[in-house]
Amino acid sequence: MTGGKEPPAVAITGLNKWFGSHHVLRDVDLTVRRSERLVICGPSGSGKSTLIRCINGLEPYQGGRIALAGTRLDGHREAEMARLRTGMVFQSFNLFAHLTVLENCTLAPIHVRRMGRHRAEDLAMDHLTRVRIPEQARKYPGQLSGGQRQRAAIARALCMAPEIMLFDEPTSALDPEMVEEVLGTMVDLAQSGMTMLCVTHEMGFARRVADRVVFMDEGQIIEIAPTDAFFRTPRHERTRAFLGQILR
Amino acid sequence: MSETFLRTAEVPPRAPPAAVGGPFAWVRRNLFSSLGNAATTLVVLALLALVLPPLFRFLVLDAVWTGGSGEACRPEAAGRPVGACWAFIHEKLGYLVYGSYPLAERWRPDAVFALMLLGGGWMLWLDAPRRGLGALFFFGVFPVAAYLLLAGAPALGLKPVPTGLWGGMIVTFVVSLVGIVVSLPLGILLALGRRSDLPVIRLACTLFIEFWRGVPLITVLFMANVMLPLFLPGDITIDRLLRPLVGVALFASAYMAEVVRGGLQAVPPGQAQAARALGLTELQILRFVVLPQAIKIVVPGIVNTFIGLFKDTTLVSIVGIADFIRVLESARIDPRWAAPSVPVTAYAFAALFYFAFCFGMARYAAFIERRLAAGEGAR
């Protein structure tokens, strides 16, 4: 599936995962090229979030394999390394409530990358400027609006210089008027060539930036298609039913 | 208004209506706003009128401030009604503070008190310079220095003073400080252990916590005093003060562990997940993300445990340790100071002593809470 000699950014083969006896990921195969933007959609409970949490090692899985840029993700040590290749943005922001926005951004660079405080702060300010909230750096997450919090969370992830950004429904917890500012940040990021996997219900965003769209249901990948074809000519009936409900 | 509406004129923001000012309005609003409130206010006022004047008369107006013996505090000798016998406290103050600590060596506990004030102040003053150094001093240097000063070190020219001679406030402070300094870190470790993924550690910590919580402190102290020596080989003796000290510290740790566990549970799991996703190790996640938030949530519970611990130290008097309460007891039965109001004075003094420290801790905790809340702004 991949062209050239470079290994794909993400290669998932035969992934299986259970929560207790509940089979949440069933024989999932997925390959993501470098700089590719992938949107994963599907009804709630379809396993989308679990899938991307497996990619960055937050969730263990019981079968199959995941490789990031050719490095396999099994065993503790590798999972740790994988986390450093991926940046994660959560639905509920998960900013550290007791730290300022700037401290949120510098914590990992200082303690994981062993970066000096001044360099880490410069880096953090660069990324906060990139997401257009440099003036919020000294505030605590509790003092920010939802949209600003999510942009701060994106900046925090970017500070670790990830190769792949994972988004887990980044706009689902936001008021409607704040969705756009976060999506705008993500569009900027996509245009910079970042590899992105994004679980979202924002079909407008998918149309605008995604190279391919993945549709999941009941723990399985139902359909993968280039964005245009996905929306214009969905092949599977479940995809058509889902799109029929969501695009009204 | 009709069923549809379209705004044509903007409504600018206005100042709120002025509140009715003045003390009369305040009293009306806060004390007599309803029939029930008015009744409560009157009952409370009546109770205060009943209690306060005699208390003030006893503690201040009729009090005896000077005198060399109980004679001064006997009504028939003084020729007037006699309240609190502060002369007694004045004369016994040295004994109440130092117990039987040798007179010539009392500068040593004084030095310990001074070091304690320095270290404690350094820690409690949040904007103090070099607080890291202060922590090192208070938790590293101070305990060693205090031990050497109090117990003595012949190598340094300090005459050994056996713990049997320690007494009064020294012992109360030693027992509560050791309890406080040991119980917080040990409690944190136990709380983490109880949430561990490793079944053996979890079981061990749970058993430890439930054992100490399930046993009354009195029993712990008796066990430490009477039974511990039975289990040890004959040639090993544990200092008589050390036994209850260990008991109190472990007892307080179990309570502290449950307080801290409450805080750990209150930190949303997303916080640790986000830290893990950033590549922080589990230890770093605890230290930089989870514990600071958990501890902050349970500051009231921690201080509550400290206050309880401080007052519970009075129980060591039952196993023969000459803490503040015990020296007060032996001071008040001094036949030279036999006077009707001496015991009451002694207990009033004890109440003031404990109240001053507990109230101080509570106020400081309230200040910390306000300060932490201000730091983060509205959530």
UniProtKB/TrEMBL annotation, chain A:
PROSITE patterns: ABC_TRANSPORTER_1 (PS00211), ABC_TRANSPORTER_2 (PS50893). InterPro entries: AAA+_ATPase, ABC_ATPase_HisP-typ, ABC_transporter-like_ATP-bd, ABC_transporter-like_CS, MetN_ABC_transporter-like, P-loop_NTPase. It comes from the Bacteria. Keywords: ATP-binding, Nucleotide-binding, Transport. One of its GO terms (molecular function) is ATP binding. Residues 10-243 form the ABC transporter domain. Pfam families: ABC_tran. The keyword Magnesium does not apply. CDD domains: ABC_HisP_GlnQ. Belongs to the ABC transporter superfamily. This is Glutamine transport ATP-binding protein GlnQ. It comes from Methylobacterium iners.
From TrEMBL, chain B:
It holds the Pfam family BPD_transp_1. SUPFAM superfamilies: MetI-like. It is a multi-pass membrane protein. The keyword Membrane applies. The chain crosses the membrane at residues 35-56, 107-126, 133-153, 165-190, 211-232, 244-264, 285-307, 344-362. The keyword Transmembrane applies. It is found in: Cell inner membrane; Cell membrane. InterPro entries: AA_ABC_transptr_permease_3TM, ArtM/GltK/GlnP/TcyL/YhdX-like, MetI-like, MetI-like_sf. Residues 169-358 form the ABC transmembrane type-1 domain. Keywords: Cell membrane, Membrane, Transmembrane, Transmembrane helix, Transport. Belongs to the binding-protein-dependent transport system permease family. HisMQ subfamily. This is Inner membrane amino-acid ABC transporter permease protein YhdY. The lineage of its organism: Bacteria, Pseudomonadati, Pseudomonadota, Alphaproteobacteria, Hyphomicrobiales. The gene is yhdY.
